[in-house]
Amino acid sequence: MAKKAKNFKKSKTGVYVSLASTAFGAVSVAKQAKMARKDNDLLRLADAAVSAAAIVTGLAILYRELKRLGDDDVLLG
């Protein structure tokens, strides 16, 4: 069982779960940015921008990993 859990991150299912959780984090960042604009808080807005950049980078890395695994999904090309 431990070996299955260890290799889960490198499986297609693991990558899909990681993609979903990273995308879910984008909702939190969007809320943070909205509140920062409403309160006119530049420091929180900068934090939201950096977090958004990290999410975009994370999604790109996960997408690359998914392509490397040789997914035959029509949407990925």
Structural class: mainly alpha
Distance between the first and last residues' Cα: 33 Å
Helix content: over 70%
Using the CA coordinates, give the radius of gyration: 16 Å
Q: What's the overall average pLDDT, rounded?
A: 83
Largest sheet: none
Strand content: under 5%
* DSSP strand tally: 0
Net shape: elongated
Instruction: Count every helix, treating DSSP H or I runs of 4 or more residues as helices.
Output: 3
The residue ranges in which pLDDT falls below 50 over 5 or more consecutive positions are none
Question: Could you describe the 3D structure shown?
Answer:
The chain crosses the membrane at residues 42-63. Keywords: Membrane, Transmembrane, Transmembrane helix. The longest helix is centred in the first third of the chain and has 28 residues, at 12-39. 79% of the residues lie in helices and 0% in strands. The protein has 77 residues and is mainly alpha-helical. Helix 2 (12-39) packs antiparallel against helix 3. The mean pLDDT is 83.
Task: Spell out the key features of this protein.
single chain, 77 residues, mainly alpha, 3 helices
